[in-house]
Amino acid sequence: MSALVEINFDDEIITPERGMAKMSDSDYFSVDAISNSDFRLLKESVLHYENKDLFPFSNASVELGRAVHKLVLEPETFNNDFVIEEFEGCDLNKNSNAYKDARKAWLSCVGDRAIISSDTFEQVKLMARNVKAIAGGLLQGGVAEHAFFAEFDGVKVKCKADYYNQYLGLVIDLKTTASISDFKKSILEYGYGTQSAFYMDVINKAGYKAKRFVFILVESVAPYMVSVQEMNIESVEEGRAIYGEYLDTWKKYKKDGIVNVVKTTGYPEWFLEKRRGA
């Protein structure tokens, strides 16, 4: 989908330059606008963002997260995007021709759906169950997986909220994590700090209300602990300042073409302090 294609949403014509729309991930990703996930590249340099197709972000934990998102937020369409690896003959010796033939026949019916093992599906079900038990009350009265589009000082921006309650002005992001206790490290490492401010700012700029940003965290290891955490005001403001710097760098690059990919490096501070004390 190009950035000029109109999207029909609730009998209203919404364009990717303005407003909110329900759309697939592939259509959302194809819209030419900066998202929060792009900041991980702009943090390195504008050339990293210009060449973002070279640096796709995907791993096993991402696929697990996608499955949990789907089962929690859009369970009615789970089977449209995922298929459990269960077929007649799947218990056969995997090196046998019978198994290979059975799997080949099964794969011909899978299409472009993501394949997950039966063990992973059991894990996903337990994670989704725990999320709904603890945070299900927050996932009511709103909409899931809706994209928002706006413009910041001439720069096209976008976000896709896991869940949004317009009446409460509440934006919710569901995260799978190895450890809830280490989540503050993830805020720095994966750009979650900028996400809270950026999402609320995009949604407000698009003409909707966003006043609070909440993470629903679920651990990916048993017993699949769940925690609901809201970004504090100071962190939201800091995230806003950080993403503002990234956008300023991008705007300057588009204006004058100047780019600097060189960063300074050196010994870690703890090593230098040890040397100084020697």
Give an account of the 3D structure.
The structure is a single chain. The protein is of the alpha+beta class. The chain has one domain: Alpha-Beta Complex (Lambda Exonuclease, Chain A), CATH 3.90.320.10. The protein has helices at residues 25-30, 39-42, 46-50, 60-73, 78-81, 97-107, 118-135, 183-189, 192-205, 233-256, 269-277; strands at 7-9, 12-14, 19-22, 82-84, 114-116, 143-152, 155-165, 170-177, 212-219, 226-230. The termini are far apart.
Output the number of helix runs.
Answer: 11
**Helical percent range?**
40-55%
Tell me the number of strands: 10
Under the CATH scheme, which architecture would be assigned?
Answer: Alpha-Beta Complex
Q: What number is the mean pLDDT? A: 88
Number of domains: 1
CATH fold field value:
Lambda Exonuclease, Chain A
Radius of gyration: 22 Å
CATH top level class name: Alpha Beta
> Which secondary-structure class do the elements indicate?
alpha+beta
Distance from first to last alpha carbon: 61 Å
- What's the overall geometry? globular
Could you give a short account of the major beta sheet?
A: 6 strands, mixed
The ordered string of helix (H) and strand (E) elements is: EEEHHHHHEHEHEEEHHEEHH
Give the oligomeric state: single chain
